[in-house]
Amino acid sequence: MATPTDDDRTLLTVIAHMKALPGKEQELRSELEKLVEPTLAEDGCVNYDLHVAVDDPGTFFFYENWTSPGHLEAHLANSHLVEFAGKLDEYLQGGADGLVITQLQRIR
To answer: Start and end of every ABM domain (predicted)?
Structure first.
């Protein structure tokens, strides 16, 4: 099965990882699901895939690809992301520090 970087190795891949506070798993999931549609409509967004850990329904990942670092920066400044960021303390273990964002570049 093909991935976005099969055709374009210059894409910026992002993995965002977070774990819900105990009892907040469903609320966090709902908030994350609300981010998908507006993000997919953003310039430079190739894909924005939400995942949940098979063995832990409170652990979530976004697998994203962006056409440039500038598009990712614009995404992070969009109102739906800024609004979500304001709620991190009520949903995530570790609050804002509980959101781990890793930027990757495919090499093979």
So the answer is: 12-100
